[in-house]
Amino acid sequence: MSRKLVRSIVTLMMLAMIVSLFGFGPAAKAADKVWVGLSFSDYATERWPIENAMMTKLLQAKGYGVLSQQADHDVKLQNDQIDTMVAQGAKALIIIAEDGASAATAVEAAVKKGVKVISYDRLIKTPSISAYISFDNTEVGRQEALGVMTAMGLKDAAKDTGKWTKDNPAKIMMMGGDPGDNNAILLRNGQDSVVQPFVKAGVVKIVADQAAEKWDAAFAQKLMENVLTAQKNQIDGVVASNDGTALGALQALKAQKLAGKVPISGQDATADGCNSIVKGELTVSVFKDTRLLSPLAVELADKLLKGETIPDLKKFTMAN
To answer: If pLDDT is split at 50, 70 and 90, which confidence band does 203 have?
Structure first.
């Protein structure tokens, strides 16, 4: 055998090894899979990594390939990640949007390419989505406010307001969620349904109403610090919209020795939130069972990809 032929065989063997190392064989097999993309606004929120793991497992059990990204609260990055997943072959997307309006751009582009999009827990503001699933966020907000009002002795605006009167109204701070998240609006609707009757009766005074951008705990702490300074610590209750912002606000309350004395609400029943309740600091956290929502998203994606009818879906206008 000539040296030239030996060199050619060695070259071919090396090429074969490189092909094997780069996985062209398995990739061809993987290409037969239908891919689903999971796009998360962030992983700082305690629930999102848990739901990512749950949906990934359920999708893989159905034979789907899974692409997953989180955007660290970066609107542009999330849109870029969505575009990339579509380019990588995702036929369906389950999206937790950082900003419901901004995400519409990438979603509409994906839908034009035949991709099915499920808006998960947060509304993406485009009629192009295939489905939007969430909890009853208006009821969540109502329960948050109800917990704070009840803890303050405010049970009925017409006949049972405890120690609070028009001459001595309870001073309340309303701490909203991220302005780019439609859930923050729904939560406020529920909160107002409980708080506003007391305001109209004159036994509650809203002394501050501010939104915590990106649901950020540190931002919420600064908001609370500013309100405490402006009100000379005269705050009787805080209706906060989730555990993260509530725990941030609690840091400011702790510094003034008011933690546990000023009722404050949250939602998601996070580990830190539940521990805070046990410590007598956080007053109420609304538990939303994500073990129900994640499987629903996977079932919807599966049916949409198979072209099956979904009779349980109801149509709403964007205004609704």
So the answer is: very high
